[in-house]
Amino acid sequence: MFAAIERHDTTQLAELISNKMTDPFNEVTDRSAKLEKIQSGNARSRYEAAQDRFRAILAIAGVGLLLGLSMAAFAWHALRKSIASLLEEATGHFRAIADGNLNRRIDVRSRDEMGRMMEDLRMMQSRLRQALLSVRDGTQSISTATAQIPASNADLSQRTEEQATHMSEVVGVFQLPAQ
Predict the structure, then answer these.
(1) 179 has a pLDDT exceeding 60
(2) Out of 10, 28, 86, 122, which residue is the most buried by the measure of CB atoms under 10 Å away?
(3) Structural domain that includes position 61
C-alpha cells in the first residue's frame, strides 16, 4: 500500500481500499458506533442519576424550609403567648391599681423574668394596700380623738363651773362681816 502511494498508482490504491481496507474500516466504524452507544448510555444514566439526586435534594430542601418556617411560627406564637399575654395581664393589673382596686388577685405562673415582674407587681399591690389601711386606721384614730375633744371640753367646762361654784361657797363661808 505504501509502495502504491509512492508510485501514485491510483488503480492499485482504489483496489486496496475497496478490497482490503473496507472490512477493517467497517469494523472500526461498527466498534466506534458501539462505543458511542455505550458512552451515550452511560452518560444518559449518569445524567438521570444526577437529575434524581437534584430532585431529591430539592425536595429535602423544601421540606427543611417548611419545617423551618413551622418552627419559626411556633416560636413566634410561644414568645407572643409568654410575653405579650403576660404584659397585657400586667397592664390590666396596673390599670386596676390606678383605679383604686387593690383587691384584684395577681397570679404568678412562672419563675422567669415575667414571673418575677408579676411577683413584684403583687408585692407592690400588697404594700399599697397595707399603706392605705395604715392611713385609714390613722384617720379613724384622728377622727375619734377629734370627736372626744368637744366631750372633753364640755367635761372640763362643767368641772370648771363646779369648781367655781365650790369656790363661791367657800368664799361665802369665809366672808368677813362688814365693819
Answers:
(1) no
(2) 86
(3) 1-72
